Automatic annotation (TrEMBL):
Its main location: membrane. InterPro entries: AA_ABC_transptr_permease_3TM, ArtM/GltK/GlnP/TcyL/YhdX-like, MetI-like, MetI-like_sf. Belongs to the binding-protein-dependent transport system permease family. HisMQ subfamily. It is a multi-pass membrane protein. Pfam families: BPD_transp_1. The lineage of its organism: Bacteria, Pseudomonadati, Pseudomonadota, Betaproteobacteria, Burkholderiales. This is Amino acid ABC transporter permease. It comes from the Bacteria. Residues 93-385 form the ABC transmembrane type-1 domain.
């Protein structure tokens, strides 16, 4: 107030306080952070390129087109040392995906069984499951891989004294040899029948779920699915001519030829990863089941459901909402832990890229390939599991 006249409030304090607004400060800090990261990246990249140039080391990914020049013990696709480095790396990546896919399936099945066993009312079963979980979780994975590899390679005889538990099946320190069907068009028909059976099973399961929600009646989805998984491939094999010829392994020199081989390295790596990851997935499953209130068990029992059906139809579907997120982490851990395969000689991605790095000297590019491959695989697993998690999540109305 000046000379009895009320003065309007000044706008200067408002302008001066703009910096104190959280939104403004947040934008400024973010710009500064991005700029700092960009400067750091520029410094590292320019410094690396300068060091490579001073040592006359070529940079870039041109070495991928050169000849690999080394053999790979096992591969999902055809490969020879005359193939390119890029194909060799692809072989290593496929070997990693193979061990990861099989390991995820087996560890999920075994982990679910062990997790349920830990909650068993049978004291002996529960204690044995608990002892397994505590023992395996507290022993480093690398030591377990060494144990399994020694068990497979040192306690089995050589090829000439190979064990023959079944006709055409041989066990030795070179791996397990089994007969395989000869290459025939009937195999393509059988494989097509398998894919059709899987697609039909998914359709039947979806129809059964909708029917049960509408009428309360259950369909024998499991039995129908197993019947299709067996029947349709057999039908395709019969349509293709039903060939009975097998490529039976036979001893030739100091090793077997013919048939298919389960290598000791693959078996040891798979056993180590599965038994190790199973201990963690069992705890995830146990925690998920225990998160469901006891009232659900009592409600299922009140309508006459046995404990097994109550677990499968009432408790586990609700526990999945708690199980899936941490289970995703276990799947990612198994995939990344497969990089320890280099310790026992399994030709995974890390092993193959390490060999190419030693030959070409392209250390930075090789490390980037490994990082990029694992990043893509891990993000793919995360996206698939997150999509499934959204599907089973409770939705508000």
């Amino acid at each position: 107030m000046h000379n009895g006249v009320m003065q309007p409030p000044s706008s200067r304090p408002l302008r001066a306080s703009r910096w104190h607004q959280p939104a403004v400060r947040g934008i400024v800090y973010q710009v500064l952070a991005v700029g700092a990261v960009g400067l750091l990246a520029w410094f590292l990249i320019s410094n690396t390129l300068a060091n490579l140039h001073s040592r006359n080391i070529a940079s870039g990914f041109g070495f991928l087109q050169g000849e690999a020049g080394f053999a790979i013990g096992e591969s999902v696709i055809a490969y020879t040392p005359q193939d390119s480095v890029a194909r060799a790396i692809l072989v290593g990546l496929l070997n990693t995906l193979k061990i990861a896919a099989v390991g995820i399936v087996l560890s999920t099945i075994l982990g679910t069984l062990v997790g349920i066993a830990r909650l068993s009312k049978n004291v002996l079963v529960a204690k044995l499951a608990a002892a397994y979980v505590e023992l395996v979780r507290n022993v480093p994975l690398l030591l377990q891989l060494f144990f399994w590899y020694a068990l497979v390679t040192e306690h089995l005889p050589g090829p000439r004294q190979a064990l023959n538990p079944l006709p055409g099946v041989f066990l030795s320190n070179r791996g397990m040899k089994i007969p395989t069907p000869v290459d025939h068009i009937a195999l393509d028909f059988a494989l097509a029948g398998l894919f059709i059976a899987i697609a039909l099973w998914l359709l039947v399961a979806n129809f059964a779920r909708r029917r049960q929600a509408a009428t309360g009646q259950r369909l024998p989805v499991l039995r129908v699915g197993i019947a299709m998984l067996i029947g349709l491939p057999v039908l395709g094999w019969a349509i293709g001519g039903a060939p009975l010829a097998l490529d039976v392994p036979r001893l030739q020199g100091f090793n077997f030829t013919g048939g298919a081989t389960l290598s000791p390295e693959f078996a040891a790596l798979l056993a180590g990863l599965v038994f190790y990851t199973t201990a963690f997935t069992a705890e995830v499953v146990r925690a998920g089941i225990q998160s469901v209130s006891t009232g659900q068990w009592e409600a299922a029992g009140s309508i006459g459901l046995p404990r097994g059906l109550a677990l499968r139809l009432v408790v586990l579907p609700q526990a999945l909402r708690v199980i899936v997120p941490p289970m995703t982490s276990q799947f990612l851990n198994l995939t990344k832990n497969s990089s320890l395969a280099i310790a026992i000689g399994y030709p995974d991605l890390v092993s193959v890229v390490n060999t190419t790095m030693n030959q070409s000297g392209q250390a930075i590019e090789s490390i980037l390939i490994i990082m990029g491959a694992y990043l893509v695989v891990s993000l793919s697993i995360s996206l698939a599991m997150n999509a499934y998690n959204r599907r089973i999540a409770l939705t508000e109305r």
